[in-house]
């Protein structure tokens, strides 16, 4: 019917057999919200807050931060908004927050949560501004840290969130050590979110900014699929994906087959991913994931998965 077609085009994400898979948007700030809403995002799965901090000599004030965060939270009064704390360093250098020493390999240096370990006041400033922004609003606010490597770091971050009055804390899985020990990390937080861009970079030891190594920045690589399966683990906590991989319709089905619980992507990718999920059952997604992991190259993995997902073209 027309209603079913419309629902499939804009409604919540679900597989053909009705298994819900929330479809969320990656945003960099209030300017991205309209596109997210127009494409039927159910919420925000990755709010990259560092855009607010770019080209600054000093950190934005608490009031300035709270205003920016509030604009995003207000756009999804009934949805979830996952705010990522500052991911400074490496591919996202911030002038006011340079790494504390010379770094020959910035991607392996002080970045993401590691920066907060050295400058905890900047973390408490950001968490405080977020708590202030969230006060009185109805959106479900979740906060997560990037570049977490150990359960100890996850516990430290979760405690800081609680101190700031933020109830739901999670960590990104971007480092192989975190993926391999995801059950330990999950025990410390409320949810996990896999950043496939960095997880690929660190799994293959291949700089994500080097076009010459782009073959290794490919989520169909069977080793990355294994790494994602490790991140889903057996902890049972929600485990989403917010890297570029989630925007590929066939890969989105494979991720659901691997046990990923939500998908966040650049908003223009949402309709095609929504349609791909609506066209396949969870069992088909699982079969596609098994077929992809049984392959030995990225190309074979993609072909094998597509063979289990009829109608993807
Ligand atoms: C990722 O690493 O996959 C991710 C989502 O974060 P960013 O691309 O901002 O590093
Ligand atoms: Mg990342």
Automatic annotation (TrEMBL):
* Keyword entries, A-Z: Cytoplasm, Kinase, Magnesium, Metal-binding, Phosphotransferase system, Sugar transport, Transferase, Transport
Q: Which class of enzymes does this protein belong to?
A: transferase
Look up keyword Cytoplasm and say if it applies: yes
Record's GO cellular component terms: cytoplasm
Extent of the signal sequence: none
Cofactor(s) required, per the database record: Mg(2+)
The entry's localization annotation reads: Cytoplasm
Chain residues that bind Mg(2+): 174, 198
Tagged with keyword Transferase = yes
Q: Where is the PEP-utilising enzyme C-terminal domain?
A: 11-279
The processes (GO biological process) annotated in the record are: phosphoenolpyruvate-dependent sugar phosphotransferase system
Q: What does this protein do?
A: General (non sugar-specific) component of the phosphoenolpyruvate-dependent sugar phosphotransferase system (sugar PTS). This major carbohydrate active-transport system catalyzes the phosphorylation of incoming sugar substrates concomitantly with their translocation across the cell membrane. Enzyme I transfers the phosphoryl group from phosphoenolpyruvate (PEP) to the phosphoryl carrier protein (HPr).
Q: What is this protein called?
A: Phosphoenolpyruvate-protein phosphotransferase
Annotated source species: Nonomuraea soli
């Amino acid at each position: 019917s027309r209603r079913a077609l419309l629902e499939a085009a804009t409604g919540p994400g679900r597989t053909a057999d009705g298994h819900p898979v929330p479809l969320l948007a990656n945003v960099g700030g209030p300017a991205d919200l309209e596109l997210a809403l127009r494409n039927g995002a159910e919420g925000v799965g990755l709010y990259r807050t560092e855009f607010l901090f770019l080209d600054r000599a000093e950190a934005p004030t608490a009031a300035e931060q709270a205003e920016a965060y509030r604009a995003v939270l207000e756009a999804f009064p009934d949805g979830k908004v996952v705010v990522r704390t500052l991911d400074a360093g490496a591919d996202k250098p911030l002038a006011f927050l340079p790494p504390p020493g010379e770094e020959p390999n910035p991607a392996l240096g002080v970045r993401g949560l590691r920066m907060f370990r050295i400058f905890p006041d900047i973390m408490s400033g950001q968490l405080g501004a977020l708590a202030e922004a969230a006060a009185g609003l109805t959106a479900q606010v979740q906060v997560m840290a990037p570049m977490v490597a150990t359960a100890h770091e996850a516990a430290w971050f979760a405690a800081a969130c609680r101190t700031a009055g933020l109830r739901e804390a999670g960590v990104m899985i971007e480092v192989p050590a975190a993926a391999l020990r995801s059950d330990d990390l999950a025990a410390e937080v409320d949810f996990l979110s896999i950043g496939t861009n960095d997880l690929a970079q660190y799994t293959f030891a291949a700089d994500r900014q080097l076009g010459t190594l782009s073959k290794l920045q490919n989520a169909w690589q069977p080793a990355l699929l294994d790494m994602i399966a490790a991140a889903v683990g057996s902890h049972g906590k929600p485990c989403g994906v917010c890297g570029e991989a989630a925007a590929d319709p066939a890969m989105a089905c494979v991720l659901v087959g691997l046990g990923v619980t939500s998908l966040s992507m650049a908003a223009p990718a949402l309709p095609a991913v929504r349609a791909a999920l609506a066209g396949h059952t969870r069992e088909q997604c699982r079969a596609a994931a098994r077929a992809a992991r049984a392959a030995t190259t990225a190309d074979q993995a993609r072909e094998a998965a597509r063979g289990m997902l009829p109608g993807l073209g």
